Sequence to fold (388 residues):
Amino acid sequence: MDTGRTRADRMEYSRDRLPIGTLLVVRTGRSRMSDVDEPADAGGDAMAEAFTYNGGRVDPGESANIRYGISETYLGDPVRIPVTVVNGAHPGATVFLSAAAHGDELNGIEVVREVAHDWDHSELHGTLVCLPVMNVPGFLAQERYLPIYDRDLNRSFPGREGSTSARRMAHQIFTNFIEPCDLGLDFHTSTRGRTNMLHVRANMDNPEVARLAYAFSSNVIIAGEGPSGTLRREATVADVPTITIEMGEAHRFQRALIDRALTGVASVLAEFGFHRDSSVHWPGWRTVIDDDNEKTWLRADAGGIVDMKRGRGALVEEGDVICSITNPFKEEEDIVTVEAPFTGLIVGVLENPVVYPGNPLCHLVGLSPDTYTALYRERRGNGSHDRM
Ligand SMILES: [Zn+2]
Fold:
C-alpha cells in the first residue's frame, strides 16, 4: 500500500484540499447495499448516511481502511494513522473506538482491531470509526509520549491548527474522526511498570456518559471528568460522550483483559442499538468510585526493592500488609512495611519492583461495606484470587 511520499500524501491533511491518494475502500458486497438510496440525500432518520472526513467518504454498507496523514516526519514523510470505518447498511449512531494515544499501551490496539476486522458487522446499524493507533510516533518508538519534546497526545485534545506539533496532530484526529461521532471508547493501560485491573473512567455527572459507562459492564467505574486535554474529557465537552477504559500494563497483549474488554464493547454496541440481536452484559457486581469513596495512590516512603504481596484486583482490609521495601542486603531493621490505610480494592499496582521515595506503589479505592461483603463472599465462593 505504501507507495512513498506523493503529492496526494502531502495534501491529505491539508484541510481545505480534497484529493487524497491513500484511501483504500473495501467493498463488503453486502446485499443490502442495493436497498440504500443515495446517502447524500438522506435527511430523515430512516436512511443510513455516508461517513465523511476531509478528503473521503464511506457510504452505507461499505468499510474502508484508511491511512490518514496527521503530520510529517523529519524526513518530510507523512505521519499517517490507521483508521477503519465500518459503515453499516442500516441507520444508527456513530461510535469511535480509539487506542494507543499513549504509544506503548497495546492492549487496546488489539481490542479495536478485533472489533474492526474479526467481528461480523453485516447487520450493523450505524457506523464504527476504529482508530487502533493514534500516537504513531510514540508507537514506533514504543514510548508513552510523542517523542517530539515528550508531548502527551492525551493532553493535547481537541488540538489546534497553528499550534504545537502535538496539538496539530490532535486537531487532525479530533476534527476528522472524533467530532463526527455520537459516542466514544478510548482504551488505555497503566503507565509502564504498573498494571491496572480493567476499569472505566467516566464523568458520571453526564447522563449519556454514565449510560455508556454502565453499558461497558466493568466491575469498577471511577467517576470524574478527567484532566484537561484528555480525549474523553474534550470529546465529551464537544457533545461526543466518551469513556476511558483502563486495562493491564503497557508493552503487552493480555488476552484475558482483551476478552473482557471485547465483552464490554459488545455490550455497548447492544445498548446503543448497533447490534440489534445482542444484549447488554451485566458484570456480576459493580461499584462506582466517586468523591465519597476513599481513594489514594500509596507512595513509597523509602527507596529500595519492593516485595509486592498483593496483585491488581486484590481486596485488602485496613492494616493488611500490601508490600515491603528492602535494601540490597535485606537487613531486618531496614525493611519498610506498607499497610492498607483503609479497607478496599487494589485497582492499580506496581509491577517493576524498584522505587525511589515518592514513587507510587498501588492505587487503592475504598469500597462500601455492602460491596466489600458481596465481593468477599463471591471470591470465597468461587475460590478466585487477586488478579483480575
Ligand atoms: Zn494511557
User: Anything to note?
Assistant: The pocket of zinc ion is lined by residues 102, 105, 188 (CB under 6 Å). The chain has eight helices and 20 strands. Confidence is low (pLDDT under 50) at residues 1-44. The longest strand covers residues 62-72.
